[in-house]
Automatic annotation (TrEMBL), chain A:
Species, as recorded: Roseicyclus persicicus
Domain ABC transporter: 4-234
Gene name of the encoded protein: ugpC
Upper lineage: Bacteria, Pseudomonadati, Pseudomonadota, Alphaproteobacteria, Rhodobacterales
Top-rank lineage group of the source organism: Bacteria
GO CC terms, sorted: ATP-binding cassette (ABC) transporter complex, substrate-binding subunit-containing
Keywords tagged on the record: ATP-binding, Nucleotide-binding, Transport
Protein name: sn-glycerol-3-phosphate ABC transporter ATP-binding protein UgpC
From TrEMBL, chain B:
Record-linked SUPFAM superfamilies: MetI-like
Organism classification: Bacteria, Pseudomonadati, Pseudomonadota, Alphaproteobacteria, Rhodobacterales
Pfam families: BPD_transp_1
Cellular localization per UniProt: Cell membrane
Residue span, ABC transmembrane type-1 domain: 90-279
Swiss-Prot/TrEMBL keywords: Cell membrane, Membrane, Transmembrane, Transmembrane helix, Transport
Species for this entry: Roseicyclus persicicus
Name of this chain's protein: Carbohydrate ABC transporter permease
InterPro entries (UniProt xref): MetI-like, MetI-like_sf
Database matches in Gene3D superfamilies: MetI-like (1.10.3720.10)
Family membership: Belongs to the binding-protein-dependent transport system permease family.
GO annotation, cellular component aspect: plasma membrane
Organism superkingdom: Bacteria
Claim: Transmembrane is one of the keywords in the record: yes
Topology in membrane: Multi-pass membrane protein
């Protein structure tokens, strides 16, 4: 049983600590995405797993073996880089075969492996081309091929889709997911794009300032965010966070509106953050809240409206066919069932809405 | 209807006339630009043309101004090529320039790469120290070089001529700047693929800086091919002269045989021309990139 285990992983540059005691276990065949804003330590974590960064503290275990002091090549990993890192002076065949450079295989065996990988990636007809003659997506396939040919225990991806245009990115995302199903290997994928994280991951690790904020399935991090950071980082547009205080059976919002929140008791007067996603805050005649539309963004199926509610701007959704216009006064309906409550000082979740 | 057509025609011809005028103005500017470039070209080519012209003159005509020889002759070429010494000097120059170029390419890029891609204590100081040697003129260095050669017994030998140029500060600087353009991802990918540091440098980084290597090769080759002062000082036996030193010896204090010197010079530009033709597609790019990065 091959596992990847990070234990109390720490990274320091001089006196600056950039990773604080990272603990993570990745199971065989699992697809884990590390996501967070830039500078959160996700790439550093990945590079430490790869052996490209020194480890300041803690251990990394791959397949039951501590690899802290092993060279990258001895860790049984392969990595795909953001700018592909395929060599411009070599053909596709040589690029893919480069990963086998140190493997003790005969030339025929190597070629067979290369052909097999190229076939999986649909690159067979491009094997004798140079990277300059390939499109961005094809280059990324070559980079993935070079990783695949080594048949590693762990695939590491460092923002591999960032250099592709939006359409190609969606397509490659799908291909990586299919590839994962096919090869069934552990994959660790770093991205700052929460959509990529949600769509690819079996589990998402959300990081900020060198700390793990939450580890969970895409559904968990979306529906049960552990804190306000996760709540606002996952999901677009962002979750609304409104000032409120407890009333015992629910909360009283900053403007005095009381909302019953089932299944939780918050001491009267306790300050909390009341979180509600825009899709749970709908333009509605029942009107728990009301305000003036400042901007309306039609998205087709629905319209995103920014509404000034008693001096606070909230994001809500309205129907796509009969959208309100800027300046309209509208009512917004919501249900306490969909609410997320966070401690207003620490930002930690007090309870999470229905899963 | 006819009136409207006429109006349209007039408007069209107006536009055409205006476009023509603009074109005339543009071509006038173009003309001036070309004339300036032409003048520059003439100035550049003049010495070369004069060299060829002088090499075709008889000794009595050498001091007369005039590009076209009155009685053109190939006598000088016959003399120089039949003089056994010239061929020897040519070979000396070729061997020395080639070995020096290969050595400098190897060491300059190795040091440049190390300074660029490895983090170590004192890296910056080492770089500055290497760079600062660029500020010392050759004329000042020849005395220490000479004393060094004397104590090591290198005087009057190939090694003595070559050793100062086997590694160059300029090359280190140029290569370091170029290696900056090689993204670390390439090196790290190779590291994961299991290459050692030397292999990464040789198999991954070096092919990616070929333009710089070509440019550096031309600079160093030409520099050594035309080097005069140091080879003159370090060699005493005419057998070891390089071309420039040998050519200069085609005269004595009383009488300088310009026609022979020019003939030798004309022949000696041939290898540099060939070298340049081979590498020219790299050199322009190399110089431009060095300029941008520097």
């Amino acid at each position: 049983m091959s596992q990847l285990i990070l234990r109390d992983l720490v990274k320091r540059y001089g006196t600056t600590q950039v990773l604080h005691s990272i603990n993570l276990t990745v199971e065989q065949g699992e697809f884990v995405v590390l996501v967070g804003p830039s500078g959160c330590g996700k790439s550093t974590t990945l590079r430490m797993i790869a052996g490209l960064e020194e480890i300041s503290g803690g251990t990394i275990e791959i397949g039951g073996r501590v690899v802290n002091n092993l060279e990258p090549k001895d860790r049984n990993i392969a990595m795909v880089f953001q700018n592909y890192a395929i060599y411009p002076h070599m053909t596709v065949r040589r690029n893919i075969g480069f990963g086998l450079k140190t493997a003790k295989l005969s030339k025929a065996e190597k070629n067979a492996r290369i052909d097999e990988v190229a076939a999986i990636l649909g690159m067979t007809e491009y094997l004798e081309r140079k990277p300059a003659q390939l499109s961005g997506g094809q280059r990324q396939r070559v980079a993935i091929g070079r990783a695949m040919v080594r048949d590693p225990a762990v695939f590491l991806f460092d923002e591999p889709l960032s250099n592709l245009d939006a359409q190609l990115r969606t397509q490659m995302r799908l291909e990586i997911k299919k590839l994962h199903t096919r090869v069934g290997r552990m994959m660790i994928f770093v991205t700052h794009d929460q959509v990529e994280a949600m769509t690819l991951a079996d589990r998402i690790v959300i990081m900020k300032d060198g700390h793990i904020q939450q580890i969970g399935t895409p559904a968990q991090v979306y529906h049960e965010p552990a804190n306000t950071f996760v709540a606002q980082f996952i999901g677009a547009p962002q979750m609304n966070l409104l000032k409120a205080e407890g009333t015992g059976t629910g909360v009283r919002l900053w403007n005095g509106v009381e909302i019953a929140v089932p299944g939780i008791q918050i001491a009267p007067g306790r300050p909390v953050s009341f979180g509600i996603r825009p899709e749970d805050l709908k333009s509605d005649a029942s009107a728990v809240l009301s305000g003036t539309v400042t901007v309306a963004e039609p998205l087709g199926a629905e319209t995103l409206v920014y509404v000034d509610v008693d001096g606070v701007e909230v994001t809500a959704t309205a129907p796509g066919r009969t959208p309100p216009r800027a300046g309209d006064r509208i009512g917004l309906g919501l249900s306490g069932d969909n609410a997320h409550l966070f401690d207003s000082a620490s930002g930690q979740s007090l309870r999470t809405a229905r899963a | 209807m006819a009136q409207a057509d006429e109006l349209t025609i007039r408007a069209t011809s107006d536009t055409l006339l205006r476009a023509q005028a603009a074109r005339k103005q543009a071509s006038a500017a173009q003309f001036v630009r070309w004339m300036l470039l032409f003048a520059g070209g003439v100035i550049m080519v003049m010495p070369l043309a004069y060299m060829i012209s002088t090499s075709l003159k008889w000794p009595w005509e050498v001091y007369e101004i005039g590009l076209i020889p009155q009685e053109p002759t190939l006598e000088n070429y016959t003399y120089v090529l039949e003089d056994g010494r010239f061929f020897g000097w040519f070979v000396n120059s070729l061997v020395i320039a080639t070995i020096t170029t290969l050595s400098a390419l190897f060491f300059d890029s190795l040091v440049g790469y190390t300074l660029c891609k490895f983090q170590f204590r004192g890296r910056y100081i080492v770089f500055i120290a290497i760079l600062s040697t660029l500020m010392i003129p050759t004329e000042m260095l020849v005395i220490p070089w000479y004393m060094m050669s004397q104590s090591f017994g290198w005087l009057d030998s190939y090694w003595g001529i070559m050793f100062p140029g086997l590694m160059t500060a300029f090359g280190v600087f140029l290569m370091k700047q170029f290696f900056e353009t090689v993204p670390d991802d390439f090196l790290e990918a190779a590291r994961i693929d299991g290459l050692n540091e030397f292999q990464i440098w040789w198999q991954v980084a070096m092919p990616m800086v070929k333009p710089a290597l070509a440019a550096l090769a031309i600079f160093i080759f030409l520099g050594n091919w035309t080097a005069f002062l140091w080879p003159l000082i370090v060699t005493t036996s005419p057998d070891l002269y390089t071309l420039p030193v040998g050519l200069a010896s085609f005269g004595d204090e009383a009488d300088v045989a310009w026609e022979l010197i020019m003939t030798g010079a004309a022949i000696s530009t041939l290898p540099t021309l060939i070298f340049f033709l081979i590498f020219q597609r790299f050199i322009i790019r190399g110089v431009v990139m060095a300029g941008l990065k520097g």
